[in-house]
Structures are given as structure tokens and as C-alpha cells.
């Protein structure tokens, strides 16, 4: 990870800078090594050393299986399609929701984040109720096709693009665009020549995160793909939990790591060419005639998000043949015949507590990482180290939750790393999932800050720390809130790792929902829907409040 | 303005630090529970469907002076594999939930230690042929084809009765099955067909099923709640693979009768076992947990808590169960050792046959 360190001699300015850089990065790197590298390496070792002897042949043979090729190909193209569609829908929506002023824009922004926390099992069922036989869109014949999977991937990830690009767009200096327009450029030319290049960092950032989310999507592929379409992630799950074929699982995990690394390298190269962007607070303007296409695309995006959610809400309000709130009232009970040990209301408390922990962990680590990876490099070696670190912290997104979960069990079981029983394991695991999202939200903004502002602060007598606080953090206020919101939402909705690690007496809401869905009895089913609606509403509310918190005009702008 | 920004940052960091203290740290009780001496704490590793009334667990703790810590670990497959992987330093003292389709794998890997638990009357019938000195049967339920009897009444059709009927064109496009690789009832149903048609004959049967329009889903909940007409009342298929206990949950309040029924000639029985883990830190406590799971109180609580039948004779079942949850007399069976040996081949073949 930090392999490309040039030979250093103490006292040399480059070496000092490198040391300072590594010192700053040491904390996050240590955390990632213990909670990510070690467990994953442990599982890979199980595959490479079956019965204690090194046998790489067995792993390589797996890679030659035709099924593995099919699975890899489907993973790549479905994730690519999902990413492209998400960006195409998300960028115009970011413009409408963050640059235009109209009543309800904040509510819409908060609502767009709802899918992000919905448990995949529930969304899968909701999509199938809309698309499947007997559903309102059954005539499209999409049930069980890759199109349904891709639609669901877009549904889940739209918020990533809208929020990442939106926050970057919101703080974008409008003057270059205004200048271009004044010089006679058409709105399309303005967008392509002035706005888009300035947003490229944010878009590439968001797209690479979305691709990773798509490529490692699990529950939704399982539910919507039926058994016809397997991805690398679902395959690892089956091989590890059902077949205990750890050689094959190791082969696929390795494949996942390689693909992710290549992707991150490409994304980093693209981002590196983005110039620094001046930022200033601008007032959102009223929508005009030129905004019509963007508004139309936004409506399509909103519809895509709304339909499954409406289906859930309708389902949760059904009581027998009529309507009512009975399913919601039942949430403080343990279900028909005590399906769940803990009522949903109590699980919501657990979820919120864990989410706060996961949020501060991922934002704290993410901030450090972002500062480290975006500082201007003074040498090639330094730039390589920063680039390497940047990619390193994205890796947790690209690795199967199952591999990580099983890895925790076999590697973190001896002092001083005896964490298997620790209540911190759940928030830590969730923070790792959220970390790349936090970094990708903060890094583009930090990278866009003109280094001369820091130099000005320093020359006015500010210490490096003070320069960091007054320049970087002041500009980061809004993106920090966005990142914290993301981390919070990821934590609330995370199911894969959580279901492995959460303790029985302290389940989170998604875990309880999964339990409710696992039992016959239509009330349990309706309660699961009601609980999902409550979870989504809770998240949207928190997001809404967080957005209200920021005070325009205060800070270093 | 600089000072203000600094102050804001510092107070934010302070607030974060404070919240972290309040939320992340456990209460001293829990700390003691977690790190307390191993002799008064016992850890039960189980699957995600495990549930018992709190009252019973409290009673157990009072009677034995032990603290019972329950750790759910995925489904039966994930649970078994975790136990195999952590054999030398197990994640608990005692495990419950390894079933007859996974038992061989666990026994082969020496996951369980010897403990000859005293079984309640009637439980012997469910004990393993090999390994009964290590795994004690706790509960059983059968995976059976379920039909929506109300739907068949409405449509003036006689519901199917046997596995053969399911491939009959009269029932075209009526069946939905959770897939064998992704769902435990799906696997059980595959095993039922293997038992019926033999190791070389089931592939042909499945081809006929698929040709007759059988629909596959990845999970049980999907099949039951989305596609089955008797689940959430929205599906279009009146035949589903579910459990012998499911009809007890579809009782129509107005008529007092169940709207679905299990086909008792299509069943594969799943038995779940408990055992003391090899290398357990608290083997005595683990033995007490096994005895607890076999006690009259827990056996009586199983139907309501986990939707399964007790293995003990003479347990009073809930009212709806007495009437609508009928146990098959002669379910299909496949030798656990054969399952362990062929599981992967069968699943590969099944995937080939069904996606052709």
C-alpha cells in the first residue's frame, strides 16, 4: 500500500514532508489494517493454504471455470450500466435540487436519500411487487430480467451522485459560466466547457463509489436476479456460507480486489487531471426555460425513487381488506407470536445509537484521510504515496461483506486483537463501509481549495493547524454535513456486515425487518413494510434537520 | 471570524468525543458480563431464526447461576461453516441450529464434543445414526409443498397431491419454488425430489417441472409473499414450497379455517440439533444449555417462538397448530453423509438443469 516510498534521509525537506504525511496517515492506516487487511488476508489464506499446505493451483483452477467468467462478465456490465444510468439521471437532478430555488427542494433532497437506507430485502420485494405478475407494471415484462436489477441499482445509488455532485455544484464559482454565457456560448456550450470540467472531480468520485456499490450489491441481486443472474458478490456468499468452498471464494475475492484496484487506479488518474476550482457561496436561482430538460430528467429520477417507496407505504397501510395504522401501532410489540425478540421501536434506538458511533468514526477517519490525500505533493514519491493511500481507503467498498465478516471471526480472536465480542465491532464495520463515501465527498472539495489561501493564512502568522482549521475546515462545513449524513444513512441501512456481527439482544432495524420477513403471517409481512417506512422516514428526517442546521453566509466564504 | 471557526470546530470535536463515550462504551454490567470469569458465562451460538421467550432464558440464568449470551450467526449453512472455521477457538460454548443437511460437515470437522444428553421421550426418533453422542435433536419441521386451498375452491380445480402432480400440465405456471443454492427450504425440496426420483432421476423431474412453468425465487420470503397467492394475497401462483407449519398462520378469522394446506406426501424433514463445542471455554455450562433446550418448558415454547415442532412427545401444541399444522408420517429422507458428499455436485447440476 505504501510501497513506493523513496529512500529518505532525515532532515531532508522531502523526507520530512513524507514523514509528516505518514504520521498523519498512521491512525487511519492502522485501523484499516486491523479491521480490513487482516480479516481479508485471513480468509484468502484459508483458500490458498487448504489443510495447511500452500496450494495456489487450486485457486487458479477456479479462475478457469466457465461459470466464473460468466459471473465476472455479468458483474462488470451490470455495474457499469447501473453507474452510467445513475450518473445520467443524477447530474441533472443535482443541478435542479442544489442550484435552483423552488419550494420543497430541501424536502426532496432529504427524500432522495431514503432508498439508501432501505433494507435490500424489502426493496427487492417492493420491486417485484411492482414489476412481477399482478403488479402495476407487470406488462413491461421486466420481472427477473437484468433490467430490473439495474433499475434497482440506480434506485439505491442515485443519492450518492445527487449529493456528491450537488454539494460540489452548490459551492461552484458561477463566474466562469457567466463569463462564457456573456461571450455568447449556448447553455449547452456553457455546461460542457465551463461547468462540467469543474465538476469532473466530483462526478468521477461519485461514479467510482457507485460502481463499487453496484459491483458489490448483494441482497437486491439475489432477490431480483432470482437464480439466473449471479454476481461475484452473490457467488462468494454461496461459496462461503453454503458450500464452504474457500478456495473458490478466495479466487473470487482476489478477482474482486484486482478489478477494484484497476478501477480505482483509473479513477484516480482521471481525477488527477482536474484543476483546482475556486469556490464561493452563490444563491440558488429560480428555474428558467433553459432548465426544462434537467427538470424533466429530475422528474424521471424522482419517479423511479417514489414508485417502490409508495408501494411500501401502501402495503404497510393495508389491514386485512381495509386500511389503517394497525401495522405501525404493532411496531412496539414483538409481532405475531413474538417473531422478534425486540420490538422495532427498541431496535430503532439501537440503530440510532450505533449510527452515531459509526458516523463519528467514519467522519473522523475520513477527514484525516481526505486531508492527507489532497495536500499538494512536492515530489513524485510523495504523490505516489498519497495516491496509494487514497485507493487503499476505498478498498473496503470493493470487498465482499461475507469475506470480511468471516475474516473477523478467524483473525480477531486472540489478544491483543480480541474484538469478536466487542460491541464496537458493528459500528466499526459500518464505518469502514461509509469511509470511502466520506472521503469521496470531502476530498474533491479539499482538492479544489486553492493552496494560496493556506499560504496566505500561514504568511499572516497562522500555525499549520490553525491554517487547516480556518481555511480547510471552514470551507468543508457543508460537505462535512453531507458526509456525516451519508455515513449516518449507511449505518442505519447496513445489513450485510451487521447481520453477521450484531448481537441478538441488540439488533438493528434492518436485522429485525429481515426476521419479520422470514416468517409466514401477513401481519408480520405488513409490519416489516411499516418498519421499513419508519426507517426511511427517520433517515429522511435526520437528513432534513442536518440540512437546516447549516447557516448560509457564516464561515470562511 | 477565524476564532469563531476554531471555536466551532473544537466544540464539534468535543461533542463528538463526548457522544462517543456515551454510546460506544458498555455499561459496567455488560462489561462484566462480557469479560467476567468464563465459569459463570455461557455463549450459545445459533442461527438468525433462534428465539425463545425472555422469561425462559431468565429462568435458566436463575436456576444455574450462569449468564446466557445468545449469538445469532446467519442461517444454518453460515452457522455451520463459521463453527468449522473457528473449530480451534470457537465463537461460543454451545451451538444450536445445525440441521440434518449440514450435520455431517460439522461432525467431520470435529466441531462438537461428546455429550450424551438425556433425551426427552420421543426424541430418539430424530437422533442421528452417526454422531448422536455429540448432537442432540431439539426441534423438527418439514418442508412441504403448500397449496392455496381457497384459490382452488374459487377456480373449481382439485389441488395437486404428489410431486408428480406438480409436473402435470393441469398445474402449468402454478408452482413457485425458492432456489436450492440460496434457500434452506429450497435445498430441502431438492432433497425430497432426490429421495423420490433417485440420484440419477431427479434431473429429469426438474426438467419437467421447469417445462411446466415452475418459477424460481432466491429466497423463501420472496416465493411466499410475492408469488404465492396465499401469502400477502397479491401473488398469482397457488402452489409454493414452504413448511408443514405454514397453514397454521393463514387461518381466516371469519371462517376459522386455514386457507392453505401442506401436501404431506411431498415433505422433507429438517431436524435441528444442539451440541457442546469442542474447545469450549465453559463446557459444563454448555451441557446445561443443551439440557435446557431439551427441557419441557423450552420444548413447549418452540412452536410459538420458532415455528417448529418439539421433538419431545406429549407437548401441548397451540390451538391453530393442533388443527392445521399436520406433521407428515413418512417424509422423504436422504442420508446426511450423502448430502455432505454430494451437496456441491447436486447444486451445480440443479443450477444447470434449471437455467437451461
From TrEMBL, chain B:
Has UniProt tagged this entry with the keyword Metal-binding? no
- Gene Ontology molecular function terms on file: thiamine binding; thiamine pyrophosphate binding
Q: Does the keyword Signal belong to this entry?
A: yes
Which GO cellular component terms are attached? outer membrane-bounded periplasmic space
Pfam families on file: SBP_bac_6
Q: Which SUPFAM superfamilies match?
A: Periplasmic binding protein-like II
Signal sequence bounds: 1-24
**GO annotation (BP), single:** thiamine transport
Q: What keywords were assigned to this record?
A: Signal
Cross-referenced InterPro entries: ThiB-like
Domain of life of the organism encoding this protein = Bacteria
Q: Which NCBIfam families match?
A: sfuA (TIGR01254)
Q: Please give the PANTHER family that the UniProt record associates with this protein.
A: ABC TRANSPORTER SUBSTRATE-BINDING PROTEIN (PTHR30006:SF2), THIAMINE-BINDING PERIPLASMIC PROTEIN-RELATED (PTHR30006)
What protein name does the entry list? Answer: Thiamine ABC transporter substrate-binding protein
Amino acid at each position: 500500500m505504501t510501497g513506493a516510498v523513496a529512500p529518505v534521509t532525515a532532515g531532508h525537506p522531502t523526507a520530512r514532508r513524507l514523514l509528516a504525511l505518514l504520521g498523519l496517515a498512521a491512525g487511519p492506516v492502522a485501523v484499516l489494517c486491523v479491521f480490513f487487511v487482516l480479516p481479508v488476508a485471513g480468509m484468502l489464506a484459508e483458500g490458498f493454504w487448504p489443510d495447511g499446505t500452500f496450494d495456489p493451483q487450486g485457486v487458479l483452477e477456479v479462475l478457469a471455470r466457465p461459470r466464473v467468467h460468466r459471473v465476472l462478465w455479468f458483474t462488470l456490465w451490470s455495474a457499469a450500466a447501473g453507474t452510467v444510468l445513475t450518473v445520467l439521471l443524477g447530474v441533472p437532478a443535482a443541478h435542479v435540487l442544489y442550484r435552483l430555488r423552488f419550494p420543497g427542494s430541501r424536502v426532496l433532497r432529504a427524500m432522495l436519500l431514503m432508498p439508501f437506507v432501505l433494507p435490500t430485502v424489502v426493496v427487492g420485494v417492493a420491486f417485484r411487487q411492482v414489476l412481477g405478475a399482478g403488479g402495476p407494471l407487470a406488462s413491461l415484462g421486466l420481472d427477473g430480467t437484468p433490467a430490473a436489477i439495474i433499475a434497482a441499482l440506480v434506485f439505491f445509488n442515485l443519492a450518492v451522485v445527487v449529493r456528491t455532485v450537488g454539494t460540489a455544484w452548490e459551492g461552484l464559482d458561477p463566474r466562469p459560466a457567466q463569463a462564457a454565457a456573456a461571450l455568447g456560448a449556448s447553455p449547452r456550450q456553457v455546461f460542457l466547457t465551463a461547468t462540467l470540467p469543474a465538476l469532473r472531480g466530483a462526478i468521477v468520485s461519485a461514479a467510482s463509489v457507485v460502481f463499487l456499490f453496484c459491483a458489490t450489491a448483494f441482497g437486491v441481486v439475489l432477490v431480483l436476479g432470482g437464480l439466473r443472474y449471479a454476481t461475484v458478490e452473490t457467488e462468494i456468499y454461496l461459496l462461503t456460507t453454503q458450500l464452504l468452498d474457500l478456495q473458490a471464494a478466495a479466487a473470487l475475492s482476489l478477482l474482486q480486489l484486482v478489478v477494484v484496484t484497476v478501477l480505482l487506479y483509473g479513477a484516480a488518474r482521471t481525477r488527477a487531471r482536474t484543476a483546482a476550482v475556486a469556490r464561493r457561496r452563490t444563491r440558488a436561482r429560480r428555474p428558467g426555460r433553459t432548465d426544462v430538460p434537467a427538470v424533466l430528467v429530475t422528474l424521471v429520477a424522482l419517479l423511479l425513487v417514489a414508485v417502490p417507496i409508495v408501494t411500501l407505504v401502501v402495503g404497510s397501510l393495508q389491514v386485512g381488506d381495509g386500511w389503517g395504522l394497525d401495522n405501525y401501532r404493532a411496531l412496539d410489540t414483538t409481532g405475531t407470536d413474538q417473531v422478534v425478540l425486540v420490538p422495532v421501536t427498541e431496535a430503532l434506538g439501537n440503530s440510532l445509537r450505533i449510527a452515531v458511533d459509526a458516523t463519528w468514526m467514519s467522519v473522523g477517519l475520513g477527514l484525516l484521510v481526505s486531508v492527507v490525500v489532497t495536500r499538494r505533493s512536492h515530489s513524485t514519491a510523495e504523490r505516489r504515496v498519497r495516491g496509494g493511500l487514497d485507493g487503499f481507503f476505498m478498498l473496503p467498498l470493493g470487498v465482499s461483506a461475507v469475506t470480511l465478516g468471516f475474516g473477523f471471526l478467524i483473525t480477531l480472536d486472540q489478544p491483543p486483537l480480541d474484538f469478536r465480542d466487542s460491541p464496537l465491532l458493528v459500528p466499526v464495520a459500518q464505518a469502514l463501509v461509509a469511509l470511502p463515501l466520506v472521503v469521496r465527498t470531502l476530498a474533491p472539495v479539499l482538492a479544489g481549495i486553492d493552496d494560496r489561501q493556506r499560504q496566505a493564512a500561514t504568511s499572516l502568522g497562522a500555525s499549520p493547524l490553525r491554517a487547516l482549521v480556518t481555511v480547510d475546515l471552514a470551507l468543508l462545513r457543508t460537505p462535512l454535513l453531507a458526509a456525516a449524513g451519508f455515513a449516518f444513512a449507511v449505518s442505519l441501512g447496513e445489513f450485510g456486515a451487521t447481520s453477521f456481527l450484531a448481537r441478538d439482544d441488540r439488533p438493528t432495524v434492518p436485522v429485525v425487518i429481515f426476521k419479520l420477513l422470514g416468517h409466514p403471517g401477513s401481519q408480520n409481512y405488513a409490519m416489516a413494510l411499516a418498519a421499513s417506512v419508519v426507517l426511511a422516514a427517520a433517515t429522511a428526517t435526520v437528513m432534513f434537520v442536518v440540512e437546516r442546521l447549516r447557516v448560509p453566509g457564516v464561515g470562511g466564504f | 471570524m477565524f476564532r469563531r471557526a476554531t471555536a466551532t470546530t473544537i466544540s464539534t470535536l468535543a461533542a463528538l468525543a463526548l457522544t462517543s463515550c456515551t454510546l460506544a462504551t458498555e455499561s459496567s454490567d455488560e462489561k462484566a458480563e462480557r469479560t467476567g470469569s468464563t465459569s459463570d458465562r455461557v455463549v450459545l451460538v445459533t442461527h438468525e431464526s433462534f428465539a425463545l421467550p425472555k422469561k425462559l432464558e431468565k429462568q435458566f440464568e436463575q436456576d444455574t447461576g450462569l449468564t446466557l449470551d445468545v449469538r445469532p450467526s446467519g442461517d444454518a449453512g453460515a452457522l455451520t461453516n463459521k463453527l468449522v472455521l473457528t473449530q480451534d477457538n470457537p465463537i461460543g460454548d454451545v451451538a444450536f441450529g445445525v440441521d440434518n443437511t449440514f450435520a455431517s460437515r460439522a461432525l467431520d470437522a470435529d466441531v462438537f464434543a461428546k455429550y450424551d444428553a438425556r433425551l426427552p421421550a420421543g426424541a430418539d426418533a430424530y437422533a442421528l445414526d452417526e454422531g448422536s453422542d455429540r448432537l442432540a435433536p431439539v426441534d423438527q419441521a418439514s418442508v412441504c409443498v403448500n397449496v392455496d386451498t381457497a384459490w382452488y375452491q374459487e377456480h373449481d380445480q382439485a389441488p395437486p397431491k404428489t410431486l408428480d402432480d406438480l409436473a402435470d400440465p393441469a398445474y402449468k405456471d402454478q408452482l413457485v419454488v425458492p432456489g436450492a443454492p440460496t434457500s434452506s427450504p429450497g435445498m430441502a425440496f431438492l432433497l425430497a425430489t432426490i429421495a423420490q426420483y433417485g440420484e440419477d432421476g431427479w434431473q429429469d423431474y426438474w426438467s419437467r417441472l421447469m417445462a411446466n412453468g415452475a418459477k424460481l425465487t432466491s429466497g423463501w420470503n420472496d416465493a411466499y409473499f410475492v408469488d404465492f397467492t396465499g401469502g400477502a394475497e397479491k401473488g398469482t401462483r397457488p402452489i409454493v414450497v414452504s413448511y408443514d407449519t405454514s397453514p397454521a398462520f393463514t387461518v381466516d378469522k371469519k371462517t376459522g379455517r386455514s386457507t392453505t394446506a401442506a401436501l404431506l406426501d411431498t415433505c422433507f424433514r429438517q431436524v435441528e440439533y444442539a451440541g457442546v463445542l469442542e474447545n469450549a471455554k465453559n463446557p459444563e455450562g454448555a451441557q446445561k444449555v443443551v439440557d435446557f433446550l431439551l427441557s419441557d418448558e423450552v420444548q413447549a415454547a418452540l412452536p410459538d417462538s420458532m415455528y417448529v415442532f418439539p421433538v419431545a412427545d406429549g407437548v401441548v401444541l397451540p390451538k391453530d397448530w393442533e388443527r392445521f399444522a399436520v406433521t407428515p408420517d413418512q417424509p422423504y429422507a436422504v442420508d446426511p453423509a450423502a448430502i455432505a458428499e454430494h451437496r456441491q455436485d447436486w447444486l451445480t447440476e440443479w443450477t444447470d438443469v434449471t437455467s437451461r
